[in-house]
Amino acid sequence: MADISARVGSARSTVTDGAGSRFRGHDTMPTLYWLKQVVKFVALPPVGPLLVVLAGLVVAGRHPRAGRRTAYAGVLMLWLLATPAVGGFLVRCLDRSPPLDAVAAAPAQAIVILGGGTRRFAPEYGGVTVSAITLERVRYGARIARATRLPVLVSGGAVRGAPPEAVLMRNMLLHEFGVPVRWMEPHSRNTHENAVDSAKLLDEAGVHRVILVGHSFDFPRSRKEFEAAGIDVIPAPIAIPPSAPSQVGDFLPSAAGLQLSAYATYEILANVLFEITAFGERAAANPG
Questions:
Q1: Which CATH number fits the domain that encloses residue 199?
Q2: Which of 44, 130, 170, 257 lies in disulfide reach of 134, CB 3.0 to 4.6 Å?
C-alpha cells in the first residue's frame, strides 16, 4: 500500500461511481442457524479429525485393520491441518487477492471494516474489548483511512450479551487511532447481514464502491455478499499467506497452524453454503 496517500487523490477523479443495489433479508430461520453450528462443530479441526480417530477406535473392535487405518488417517489429518503450510495452502485456495495499493484504492468512495469477534473477559480493559482478529482489521483500516482520507463504516453486532462490535471498533478507531467513523452498523450477526445492513447505510449516502477490510480467508465470500447487496468491492486482505512454505517450522504442527486451517475450513464450507443458497435463489427466480 505504498504511496497511497500521494497517488489516490488524482486517480480517484478519473473513475465514475457504480450503481445499483440488491438487498437480501436477514436469515431468520433458527433451524438453519443451529444446523450451521452443528456442522461447524463437527467438521472443523480439531474436532473433525478427532472424530475420525474415535470412529476408527470404535470400528477396531470388530474390524481391527480397518479401524486402525481409520484412526491413523484421523491422526494424519490432524497433523497436516495443524501445520502452517497446509493452513496457508487452504487460504490460498480460497483467495489470491493481492495487497491493496494506490491504483486499486483510487476508485473507492468509503472504507468498510468488518468485525471479527469480541473478547468478553478483558479485565485489563474494564470488561469487553475486540478480539485479536478485529484488532488487526481496525489497525489496517485506520492505516488505509489515514492514507486515503475516505470515510469509514464499521460493521458488527452484539454477541452473547457483549456490546456491539461496531461500537467497540468505533471507540478504538477514534480514541486509539485518531480516525473518525462516519457510519456504524451494530446489528449484524454474520457476514451476510454485515453486507445487507452496511449496503443500506452506504446506499443512502450514495456510496456504491468500497474498500473492504477483512482477512484473506474471508474472501471471496465477504466480497460476494457485498456485491450481491449492490456494493462494488475493492478487497483489502490481511494476513495473506506466503506463496510457498519457506521454513522448516511451516511443516511442523502448531496452534497457529491449526487455527489457520480451522478458519480456512470454515470459509470453504461457508462458500459452499453460499453457492447452494445462490443456486436456490436463481432456481426460484427462474422456475422454467
A1: 3.40.50.620
A2: 130
